[in-house]
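Lay summary. Proteins are chains of building blocks that fold into shapes, and those shapes determine what they do. In this project we predict the shape from the chain. Here is one chain we studied, written as its sequence of building blocks.
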Amino acid sequence: MAKKLQNDIEQYNEIVKLKKPEVEAVSQLLRAELVREGKKSFWIGFSIKLLFFILGAVASILISILMK
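And here is the predicted shape, written in a compact code that computers can read:
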């Protein structure tokens, strides 16, 4: 745990040394990554919901056929 804390301190010290243009570049990269992940998670969620909708519809049809 001490090594992890030491690494965190070193990372913090490196970040503090960054100049304004560098900070802006890093923040732009982070924003782009967040947007990309947001789109990706949207489509994954949409696909899962669509799959369960289709499975529910198929199950409903099968149950109605079997009940006759």
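What the prediction tells us: The longest helix spans residues 20-67.
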